[in-house]
Amino acid sequence: MKYVITGGAGFIGSHLVDRLLSQNHQVIVLDNLITGNSANISQHSDNANFKFINHNVSNPITLDDEIDWVVHFASPASPVDYLQLTIETLKVNSLGTHNMLGLARAKNAKYFLASTSEVYGDPEIHPQPETYWGHVNPIGPRGVYDEAKRFAEALTMAYHNKHALDTRIVRIFNCYGPRLRIKDGRVVSNFISQALNNEPLTVYGDGSQTRSFQYISDLVEGIVRLMGTEYHEPVNIGNPQEKTVLELAHLIKDLTESKSEIIVKPLPIDDPKRRLPDITLAKKLLNWSPQKDLIAGLTETIAWYQERLVVNR
Ligand code: UDP
Description:
Elements: E1 2-6, H1 11-22, E2 26-31, E3 50-54, E4 69-72, H2 79-84, H3 86-107, E5 110-116, H4 143-163, E6 167-172, E7 175-176, H5 187-196, E8 201-204, E9 210-212, E10 214-215, H6 216-227, E11 234-237, E12 242-244, H7 245-256, E13 262-265, H8 280-286, H9 294-308
Parallel strand pairs: 1-2, 1-4, 2-3, 4-5, 5-6, 6-11, 7-10, 8-13
Antiparallel strand pairs: 9-12
Helix pairs in contact: 1-6, 3-4, 5-7, 7-9
The protein binds uridine-5'-diphosphate (UDP).
């Protein structure tokens, strides 16, 4: 099958590209490298099944190829990125989603949308099932991402209902692993690089806020399984192993045997207090559950960072 993957040079997109190429599918990556990295896909440059097009999918594109799947993963996704790239984030999830739905329709292809647990905002119920409508501040700083992804879901469902487009929506909870950009500002990348450099680990707020971290290989497996269903409504993919940010800081400090101290910085506005996926649906529908536990996943991620960081020890 032939897949178009937007954001295929990004963290999650590139792992999906690896997986699909390993199964002998053909892949065309559309990415403008605004937060992606060509090094994530350079290993495929000699593969005849692989093509990279440097393109911002907020602008339309015409492709001559026959396409079976349009998979829309392009978007800044780290809070630090989307708080800077505000309009780019709104555009890629609105105009970009529209362009890619149009491409799927023109090619009679299936369509897969990467959505996010951010559609739940700062949730008021725990864990968060897909049926929860969320608690989002539309005009707060995170609104540029949260509302854009909510719009992307609405547009995808409209194309499904109006044009009978064969669509899927995954809601991705916090994910980490190799290729998570060292400077993307997320908690796992910050803590690992700080710990390896023996710099202070920056805990925002009192560190009592929670996240539930899934390893990249578990997410890719969930995505591939969802593609294999006929289910059109959103499906949570995440690991319900919930940790406070402070617990995560101590864990990473221990795993890296770092001498770093842990310091406190202000909590960003609208930072969700608790995030925990309800994965009942994914378990039932996909026979999927996360396999990689946090210590094993962090150990592999730390090893990847170690190879890339200039460590001031
Ligand atoms: N965080 C932190 N220190 C950092 C970076 C993030 O304490 O150096 C916190 C952040 O305030 C949030 C959690 O870690 O509560 C997860 O943040 P991240 O940016 O990874 O993603 P989010 O889940 O908020 O989208």
